[in-house]
Structure formats: structure tokens, C-alpha cells
Amino acid sequence: MSDDQAGDQAFRNDNPHNRWSEMTYGGALSFLRRRYSRDLTGVDVAVTGVPYDCAVTYRPGARLGPRAIRAASVQLAELKAFPFGFDPFKTLNVVDYGDCFLNPHDPLSIIEAITAHISEILAQGAFPLTFGGDHFITYPVLRAIARAHGPVALVHFDAHCDTWPDDGQEINHGTMFLRAKNEGLLDVEGSVQVGLRTYNDDSHGFEILSAPWVHREGSAATIEAIRERVGARKAYLTFDIDCLDPAFAPGTGTPVSGGLTPAQALEILRSLGNIDFVGMDVVEVAPAYDLSEVTAINAATLAHDFLCLLAEKKGAKRLPIGRL
What we know:
Layout: H1 9-12, E1 45-50, H2 65-72, E2 94-99, H3 110-123, E3 127-132, H4 138-149, E4 153-157, H5 176-182, E5 192-194, E6 207-209, H6 211-217, H7 219-230, E7 234-240, H8 262-269, E8 276-283, H9 294-313
Parallel strand pairs: 1-2, 1-3, 3-8, 4-5, 4-7, 5-6, 7-8
């Protein structure tokens, strides 16, 4: 290995299917050490951050989530992906698109700024993989997604339904999916919510697989229910990290006891590769409340494994070792 093929891949590596040795504790940070670029020519996936958390109802801090998830991804960039057994970047061209630039002092500009940012990615033909930020950011992302693809099924992992009463105006991370439904952004008949453990008087037509149900029925039944609900529809996956129990994701704004384990969440996600996803996000990582980066590590792993699903769709083959 020559000195010109070691370190700082985020701005030095011009080969999208190559990766170099890095000091895990040093070097320029990007998600999975991918190259930073706003040129999406030939790019399959654009990873981007939306550092916004002014819609929270309890603890702030998720604006620092994108930075934390990038930092937590360093070890995932070292080896072939587990349990897939391949390097996803041999198949996928992935870049780190950087963060959406926002003016937090002009709240009325936030929705359109995020929608325009994601629309730029979609217009260049890339798949948007987005890091929040609080969960409200998914609403303007869905506006861009629906403009490009029409209404989509929502595969929603969360402790909360996020469909409480909405007036169509508030910037609130607990009401935006009712707004998205009311605005025709979602195909609710194909939408499913997984891991819920807070109450709402109305399901608003979403299929709900509560956390107790997932614990009782198991991952296999959950996978089957999600696949059956979504069917052949185009879908968007949104993962609020508080879907995980606070034991595994303390670094979040509205933790709720009784959630999924990382093992459950990863097993479910790794089995959804046959769904026609057109976008994905991981939100609500608030590193100020995290312990030993455990929340950010779980978020980075979920995003990494989702990339592996996209790599499989493009032809990567699993090469399992041992009993899986």
C-alpha cells in the first residue's frame, strides 16, 4: 500500500468502488469514509444530513445527529459487511453529499429548504439516504419524494405514531405523518408502523405492529407483516432511533421504555430487500444524551445495512460464513 492510498478518503479517493486503509481514530470524517461530492453523475446513493431539531417536544440536540452518525461509522468502513460478506462499494457508488444548509433563525424557510435539498439529489438520479435531525425533517423529505415518485408506502420504525392532531402549519415532530397523509404524500393502505408503544385514539389507517406485538410474535412474523402490507408499492423507510429501547439508544430526545433491541431491528431491516424503497432516513440521534456512542453506532449500522440491501439489488451476492 502506497502513501497516496492511505487515509482521508473523504476528499482524496477518486475511485468510488475503492477504499483505503484509515486510522479509525483519525482522518477526515464522512459516512463510511465515502467521498464528499455534490456531483452525482453516476452516483447510486447520496448520503446527506439535515441538522435540524427545532420541532422537538422534549429534549433538543438531534441537530448534532448527522455528525455523530458519521463519526460512529468508522469501524463499519474497515471490513466486508456483516453478515452479507461483501463490500457494498464494489457494487454501489455512494457519496457523502454533506448537509442541507438551513437558517434556524427563519423557521418559515425550513420546509422548503429541506424539500429543495432532497429534490436536487433526486433530480440527479441518486437515492437519498438522510440523517436527522428530529423526525419532522421526514415531512419535507417526503414532499420531495412524492413529487418524484407519487404517494409512497411508509415503513415507519418508532416509539411514537407521529400522527397526533395537526393544524397544517406547526413545525412539530409528533404530527407530521398525519399532515403527510392529509396532503396525499403517503399511500396509507400500504403503510406500516413498527415498534410503537405510545397511545393515539386513531390509527388513521396505518397498520400498527406495536413493540409488545413484535416481542411476542417475533421478527419473522414482523417481516412477513411488513412485506404483505407494502406489497409491490414504492416505499420510504424512516427509522426513528427511539424505536430501540433506551437501554440501546439513550441518546435521543423522547425515549420510551419497552422498545426493540438492535438485534431485532437489524434482523427485520436485513430482510426487507425485496421492497421497492425510494428513500430512507435515520433520525432523532441526540449525542449529548448518548453513552459511549451506542445510539450513534446503532444508527450508523442500520444505515450501513440498508446500503447493503441496495447493493444486493444491484447484483451483490451474500457470502455467509457460519450459522446465520
